[in-house]
Amino acid sequence: MNESIVTAGSKVKSVRESKLIDTATLSERTGLTVDQIETIENGASLSLSPLIKIARALGVRLGTFLDDVESDGLVVCRKEDYNKGVRFNSSKDDTKHLDYYSLARAKSGRYMEPFIIEINNSKGDDFVFSSHEGEEFIYCLDGVVEVMYGQKSYTLNSGDSIYYDSIVEHGIQAVNGQAKILAVVYAPI
Question: Cα 148 from chain centroid?
Answer without folding.
Answer: 17
